[in-house]
Amino acid sequence: MQKFxxxxxxxxxxxxxxxxxxxxxxxxPKGEWTGILEKVxxxxxxxxxxxxxxxxxxxxxxxxxxxxxxxFFQKGTDRRLIQFKAPASEAGISVLIRGTSxxxxxxxxxxxxxxxxxxxxxxxxGTDLSFDDMSSLQYSKENEVISANEKGELYHLVLKPxxxxxxxxxxxxxxxxxxxxxxxxxxxxxxxxxEYKRMERLGFRKFNGFSVPSKIQVKDMKSQHRTILDLxxxxxxxxxxxxxxxxxxxxxxxxx
Length: 256
What we know:
Layout: H1 6-9, E1 26-27, H2 33-44, E2 49-59, E3 65-75, E4 79-86, E5 94-98, E6 101-106, E7 111-114, H3 131-134, H4 139-142, E8 143-151, E9 154-161, E10 171-177, E11 183-189, E12 195-207, E13 210-220, E14 226-236
Antiparallel strand pairs: 1-8, 2-3, 2-14, 3-4, 4-5, 5-6, 6-7, 8-9, 9-10, 10-11, 11-12, 12-13, 13-14
């Protein structure tokens, strides 16, 4: 359902011991590759709407931790709104995602600005997530599968961006749960073929028949800095209004 959960973000359940190496496992017939990825997109889009509280932990390689708190709203697959509540210096900062467009409201300046395409791969507010990670994403539309294996309860897919799409990665290695086609882990590789970021999902829970991760970890493999998103008070299909996802709502003090 969610890029920010997925994606917003976007992301892992599997531990390293569960990871399916590209050379291991039973090959999946090529004719099934695209179908698996389309099922991943469908699993990410489950539910009409969602809202939750978020505790965002920023942890450096020495283990020093900082925390931020925010609330999160989503409607459909292409509209998301995040508003920070703490610390006080960042309270009121809001991010609106509509499709591939991202808007940032800074209450100190009382200004809303659209995030330009060329900076969407920059870190967002000190986290290990980029603006691009937070935007709407359908993996089957933006990537093609170049190999697929299965081992135990996981599929392992290797993806590359489709021709003509500018992406910061040249390859994604994705671990997918067989039972619900939820993403368990994604590894991002740069133009030097080095893993530069890893996204993990943990603690899947059932809500109204939907499987949703309650914790998301994103790790910068070079700096060893981590961002952990803990999702609390999650609610699905509560009738979140579409009016919430407008520029004027960015300036309002919102509650779940």
